[in-house]
User: Fold these one by one.
Assistant:
Number 1:
Amino acid sequence: MNKPELLAPAGNLEKLKTAINFGADAVYLGGSKLNLRAFADNFDNNELLEAIQYAHDRNKKIYVTLNVFPHNEDLEGLEEYLKELYNLDVDALIVSDPGIIMTAKETVPNLELHLSTQANNVNWKSALFWHKIGIKRIVLARELSLNQIKEIRKKLPEDCELEAFIHGSMCMSYSGRCLLSNYMTGRDANRGECAQPCRYKYYLMEEKRPGEYFPVFEDDKGTYIMNSKDLCMIEHIPELVNAGISSFKIEGRMKSAFYVATTVKAYREAIDSYFNDPKNYKYNENWMKILEMSSHREYHTGFYFGEKNKQVYKTSSYIRNYDIVGIVKEYNSSTKTALIEQRNKVFEGDKVEVFRPIGNNFEIILKNIRDIEGNKIESTPQAQMLYTISTDIELKKDDMLIKYKEIKN
């Protein structure tokens, strides 16, 4: 029984470092071209080189997405871009289009290829086809059940890896193949520019009563809007492992660094706990508490357990229990002060929690807040400003300071 890889998203360099620091085995990201998150920060070649060095120095891997549905103009400069990625020493490319795959096999034949979930692979024969033409790993469609994944695993050679999403946003369209954004806004979801119109709030209007808008309701019999819940499989690590999945993938290149930290930490602890003692493994409710800290929609188990877990949804709003308010840059043990980079405004006397890769959260009170010149201040209003606090508790570089967010009904 091989321990699965924990694969995390990275929309920028800060999120990549967060993912690795909190325990990811590998990170997937978008480069400067041909990826499905055009509005993430993404990585230019200089940033990508820094990211690869940071990951490889820690024995972690970097996968770059080239998973759009390319039109003719998108193919211009493809060979040069592939060579650039190969020379930067990326560990694999995530691809979906046969034209890009063919070009990659011709141009950079030694570079590992993973088939994107955009290719919506839902059966073993398709997986075998892709493997025979040089695909190392199949990223399975989200619409598969655990039993279907087990059957696919049994039919494939051992050296064909399977990757599956185990946490994050779900799409209202089959494997992300949606035309709604293009139709409504002119932004092509299949070329990385989705405006997420499925998240909009909709009303009905009857043609003979213009200007009268009626809300769209849901009941226990079904769903009548396009939102979906968020996938969460933290309670089912043994089932995922026993299905033969090689890589557990977290969705979210557009999500925050705090989201990356919470999801990676929870799944890292759960996977490690299982492999430390599979026979006596016990689910820890604290893992779900960690996952509930960052912004998310209501959780469910997607398609893994069949029709009994439909994506019935009652609201398009997010659940957000905590805000990240600062990142620790350094701690001076002689003066017992910590240098903080602001993420959200805080005030003198605020109670915050310290969130770090290993160990439980603990509380501190923000005391003696001073700006970078040493002037006493009562709050931190400027985005990403540097300030210091006094604390007897030794904080560590990259610790996150988080603050409970009062939920208003």
Note: The chain has a mean pLDDT of 88.
Number 2:
Amino acid sequence: MFRLSNLIASVVEDKKERILDGSIAIWNFTNRCNLSCLHCYSKSTLDEVDTLTTEQIKKTILEMKANGVKFIIFSGGEPLTRKDLFEIADFCKENGIITYLSSNGLYFTKGNIQKIVDTFNYVGVSIDGDEETHDYFRGLKGAFKETLKSVLLANETGSKVGIRFTMTKDTIDSLEYIFDLVEKHNIPKIYISHLVYSGRGLDNLKMDLSKEQRREAVEFILNKAFEYYETGRDIEIVTGNMEMDAVMFLNKFTSKYPNLHEKMRERLVKWGGNSAGRKLLNINSEGDVRPDPFFPLIVGNIINQDFGTIWKNGELLDKLRIHPRKQISGICSNCNQIDICNGGSRARAYAISGDIWAEDPSCYLTKEERENI
């Protein structure tokens, strides 16, 4: 995740940087879901049966804690379809692990919303555009109205709530609408995700943005981030799954604060770009462990292996943890910005070329941007 709003404020105001002290696990606790979203990487349905038991999950949480995992993002499917989800989240809290909930919001009610926001440190709800776009993309008529109602219900509690939005050719025309929505209702956070080719996202590869569309969208997002900072608007912007955004961000930041260029670049290099297998991992509903949720290769399974054994060993993880990943071929091999982006998504590279160490085909940086520091 690229927390651009936090970076602007911390560097310009010379505040202590926000350091990820530990690893983040995105855990798909269930593959059961009440929606059928076009871009879903887990291909979830309501017919799925949970594989992992509560006891297995708790055992693994203790193993993860012992191996430096400090954050768990509760994902799915729709995580709230698991009856033991609050028990699991409470167990995380008892063991000092921060929890985020990633939900479609359709199970939020006036009766359970306070319990949800009290249980999780942050609640993110996915909205894919205006009403027509969201309902089409989510495969359910009326989903938008119910999801927006859920977001507002959560936001009224005063807790940290955010909207998650995935950019595709089908949703990109709603990008400005989503920002208007956040501003209108004073939603404290907006997370913009670039598409990764996996699950239904791979089936629908044609839905990805062109590089020209992506640049235009990122330019709009960056302008919003600087606008919010300069006007004192307390809305946090985060982008995901496209670490090259940081290079465009650096160029825009430098144009506004040229004397802080080196300081910001040092901060971005320390951030480290793509963190799959380094500070990021995924566990799916079957117990498979991957370097990120979209990664095409499995490094182990928690049902028959101790998490520490999986996380500490393995040639693939060792290679992923090299920073910067100069072993990546193509345009990455002579790019002067690889210490910032770390080569981008290995999942996208593999999906297009069959080579885990090929260049990220979605990189939209120009030759000049790749060469200049």
Note: Residues 3 and 238 are 5 Å apart (CA to CA).
